[in-house]
Amino acid sequence: IKGLKMSFLKTCASVIFGLVLFACGMLFYVFVLDNKYFGNPPLQINYTISVNGSKTPTHYSANPVFSSASLLKMPTLTLQDKTIIASGFKIISQRFEQSKLCKGGSYSITPLTKYDQESQSNQVYGQNFHAEFSCEFDKAQFEEYEKLLNETGALANEMGYFTLQIPKVRPIVKNEQQNEIDSELKGALIEQAKQSAEVYQKSLSKICKIERIDINDSHAYPKVALMRSVETQSVDSSALPIESSEEFSLSAQVSLRCK
How many CA atoms lie within 13 A of 126 on its CB side? Predict the structure, then answer.
């Protein structure tokens, strides 16, 4: 019986000793190897990354403007003047509408005044006429746009009350292209963040994981404003801008945790 008791006590001591060793091992991992309480704490690294991409605009925009030099010298407008202007501009507006390239169609006539010392009051010395259309077209539609300007410019000249001012033609990036470049650059940002995490991991000899990628803007923006526009001198000399790709840029803030 005494021998059995001793054997039982030895077994219990072995089990307790094993449990103590297991507990010590767990504590060593949690407090030392895992670096939560002792040793070097996790390293937090924050930095900025950026990527570039390009797209060639496929559409163009322009804003034809009608103004009048003769009305600037007319203090008053007769009923006949107003009728000719209204009916004439209606024809021009309908032509723009029929093209399906432009929007707009309203005009304004604002009296111009200056202070008269003799009467000590503001006197009307002329009228400011202004009308503007917003046009958008692709390369294949440019000849139609030119024809529209030729016809409406000739009509305005015949009336003699206002003239067409030929606008700059600007390349524009449509929503479809904008969405494409956004997706491409966001994907490139994620890939660059992964590559940079690998570089830090190799350099620091630590395990580095990406905690956050905060993209700075919802859309990619041109690095330089779309400036390749051509300002034409007359209806007969209008021209498209030189075709060229536009550079876009997108950036993000990356947060790494290395341990």
Answer: 10
Q: Where are the alpha helices (DSSP H) in 65-141?
A: 79-99
Three-state DSSP at 100 gives: coil
Of 246, 254, 251, residue with least CA distance to 213: 254
Query: Under a CB-based contact definition with an 8 Å cutoff, are residues 60 and 142 in contact?
Result: yes
Encode pLDDT of 38-82 as tens digits.
456 889 999 999 999 988 888 999 999 999 999 999 999 999 999
240 in Cβ contact with 135 (< 8 Å)? no
- Cross-strand partners of 231: 168
Q: How many CA atoms lie within 13 A of 228 on its CB side?
A: 16
The candidate with the shortest Cα–Cα distance to 213, out of 196, 190, 185, 184, is 190
H or E segment to which residue 249 belongs: strand 246-258
3-state secondary structure of 244: coil
**DSSP code at position 34:** T
Q: What is the 3-state secondary structure (H, E, C) of 108-127?
A: EEEEEEEEECCCCEEEEEEE
- The one-letter amino acid code at 58 reads T
Residues of the chain with pLDDT under 50: 2, 4, 15, 20, 27, 30-32, 35-38, 224-237
- The token pair that represents 199 in the structure block: 């570089």
Q: Which residues contact 104 (CB under 8 A, 6 or more apart)?
A: 93, 96, 131, 132, 133, 134
DSSP 30: I
Classify strands 246-258 and 43-55 as parallel, antiparallel or unpaired.
antiparallel
Q: Is 11 helix (H, G, I), strand (E, B) or coil?
A: helix
Q: How far apart are CA 184 and CA 203, in angstroms?
A: 29
- Bridge partner residues of 102 (DSSP): 135
